[in-house]
Specification:
The chain has 171 residues and is an all-alpha fold. The protein has 4 helices and no strands. The longest helix is centred in the first third of the chain and has 69 residues.
Length: 171
């Protein structure tokens, strides 16, 4: 009887150990998958930010051409300018405060620094876009173009560095 009990205890111990390894392995893999999903969302959000910036510049330059050719900016371009600039700004602050927006991992020091560096440029461009949306006249449009010429190139280069920082950090 003793050898049978000993074998039974060993068998139960073995099965329990296998079950625990499977459970811990599943928990670990699930956590890693969730982290990977958060990282992917951050990289995609940074790429979206860069794309919205380019789209915003395109809308302003289209508005300039419309103004030169027709003497006014279409309501379609004004609506696009307002919507894209709002999305652009919201996306920037989601990245800047990623840990407050449901993303488990906070920004690295490099990404955080680049985002903070770009914030004043973003605010200048955003405020100028809002001025054009509220007062689509020649003077306002020329000021918007001046601000874009001054800030957009540097903003885009920094946005590219942000995307690269996320990719390097998470891959």
């Amino acid at each position: 009887m003793k050898p049978l009990k000993s074998i039974l205890y060993q068998y139960v111990f073995l099965i329990s150990t296998v079950i625990l390894i499977i459970v811990f392995g599943h928990v670990f893999i699930q956590q890693e998958l969730n982290n990977q999903d958060n990282r992917t969302r951050l990289i995609n959000l940074a790429g979206r930010q860069r794309m919205l910036s380019q789209r915003l510049a395109k809308i302003i330059f289209q508005a300039r051409i419309e103004f030169i050719e027709d003497g006014h900016i279409t309501s379609k371009n004004l609506d696009s300018l307002n919507n894209v600039s709002r999305q652009w700004r919201e996306t920037h602050f989601k990245l800047l405060n990623s840990n407050e927006h449901g993303m488990a991992e906070a920004n690295s020091a490099a990404a955080q620094s680049l985002l903070q560096t770009n914030t004043p440029r973003l605010e200048r461009i955003y405020n100028t876009c809002q001025m054009v949306g509220q007062n689509p006249e020649r003077k306002t449009l020329l000021k918007a173009l001046s601000v874009l010429n001054q800030d957009e190139g540097i903003y885009l280069l920094t946005a590219e560095k942000i995307v690269t920082a996320y990719e390097n950090e998470y891959h």
